[in-house]
Design goal:
The protein is mainly alpha-helical. Helices cover 72% and strands 0% of the residues.
Length: 172
């Protein structure tokens, strides 16, 4: 049992050593600091990729743009677009290359004018609902006032009749 335990520990140790030796070059990072020019080019490339990706329909996610699609293929396509930008290609050349690979399925169809109303529609419906509730409340309070006034009038009439009868008796 002791021998098995020692052999297992040694083989695990050697396995970790071999794994780290193999993966060390893979995870090694460039220690040179990036220049300000490289950082600005990278930021500009990211902006262009995001702008282009937002204009294109994703071939991998049916109703999403290439920017909002979370599939790994969309990620790699955005990386490919970034590489094209870093190579100095303009937007038209990138779109042409993507059309060559995926056809016209990447183009977003033009949106109708009323799609502008979609984000504000809940507010419009909420305001209409509040207006309807308020108007029903006003009608209810008016009916209540009318009912109270109708109840007061018969009482007032009865009181005035009694006063008239009393006055007439006194006159007799």
């Amino acid at each position: 049992m002791k021998r098995f335990l020692i052999t297992s520990i040694c083989s695990l140790f050697l396995g970790f050593q071999l794994t780290s030796a193999i993966l060390d070059p893979v995870f090694a990072q460039n220690t040179e600091p990036a220049t300000q020019d490289e950082i600005s080019k990278d930021a500009e490339a990211s902006k262009r990729v995001n702008r282009l990706s937002d204009q294109l329909k994703s071939p991998f996610c049916s109703v999403k743009t290439l920017l909002t699609c979370t599939s790994s293929q969309a990620y790699y396509l955005r990386q490919e677009m970034r590489n094209m930008i870093m190579q100095g290609k303009n937007d038209a050349e990138i779109l042409e290359a993507l059309r060559g690979s995926f056809g016209d399925s990447l183009e977003n169809p033009p949106q109708p004018w009323y799609t502008v109303l979609v984000p504000i529609m809940p507010f419009i419906l909420g305001a209409l609902l509040a207006l309807a509730i308020f108007s029903m409340w006003l009608k209810g309070s008016k009916k209540k006032q009318e009912a109270e006034s109708q109840q007061i009038v018969p009482q007032a009439k009865a009181e005035s009749r009694e006063k008239l009868k009393n006055l007439m008796r006194e006159d007799d």
